[in-house]
Amino acid sequence: GNDLGEILLFVFLEEVLKAPKILSKVELKAQSGSYDSECDAIHFLSSTNSNGNSYYNIVFGTSSIVGDVKDAINAAFDRVAKIHSKSEQEILLAENTIFTKTVDQSTAQKIKDLLLPQKGKKRRVSYDTAFGIFLAYDLGLNPNNYTNQDFEVKLEQKMKTDIKAHTQYIIDKINNLNLGNYSFYIYFVPLNDVANDKQQIMNAVFGEGGTDG
Question: Which of 53-57, 192-196, 204-208 bottoms out in mean pLDDT, i.e. has the lowest?
């Protein structure tokens, strides 16, 4: 499974983007019934723009952990395309959380204000859908060739180079899917060796032996 991607996606959206979780992958599976959600998570983002006006995003999350960075991007955007094509069903899942205990009361009220028609109001509070993407890939550096301090420097340089080298590719992906009007929150994490590191991190999180996911 993609348990690690789902966990790290949650961490970045919740802790970095400050977008509270509406539904995790496990909750999506439990709540979706006959509909198989394409999301790894759905989060809620409340923020203000440069004019001081509030804006809201329902953030559809997906993750991809693949050795080659371009392959990771491709896999993630394949999922984004599927999520976008089923966005109405995904929003319906978010609506249904209002009547469950999967989110705190404050977040649930905000979601309710956004998604449900309200008596006496001509329109609901406006919101946009957005996409949160977590990407992990092979760094392509051998840590044995560097001191710890030098490796940290090289890692940061390589990650910046990788992101810069693929920025236009990501923009083209977004435009080719006609999603240029949507916000994207994309997080890159390079690993020494995706195949091994993925399992080692899961073992560290859940104890030796990992999970069955």
Answer: 204-208
Torsion angle in degrees (nearest 10) through CA of 154, 156, 162, 163 = -170
Asked if the structure places residue 213 within a domain, the reply is no
Query: Would the pLDDT of 114 be above 70?
Result: no
- Backbone angle region of 18, left / alpha / beta, with phi > 0 → left and psi within -120 to 50 → alpha: left
Token look-up 């560097």 returns 146
Q: What is the pTM of this model?
A: 0.82
Helix (H, G, I), strand (E, B) or coil at 145: helix
Residue 26's domain comprises: 2-208
CB under 8 Å to 4, separation ≥6 — which residues? Answer: 65, 136, 198, 201, 202
Of 1, 41, 7, nearest to 206 by C-alpha is 7
Copy the structure tokens of residue 71: 């392959």
Residue 57 CB burial class (10 angstroms; 0-12, 13-18, ≥19) = buried
The answer to whether position 53 is within a domain reads yes
Within-domain flag for 194:
yes
- Starting at the edge strand that comes first in sequence, how are the strands of the sheet with 183-191 ordered? 21-24, 41-48, 54-65, 128-138, 183-191
- Split into its structural domains, the chain has a count of 1
Does residue 92 sit within a domain? yes
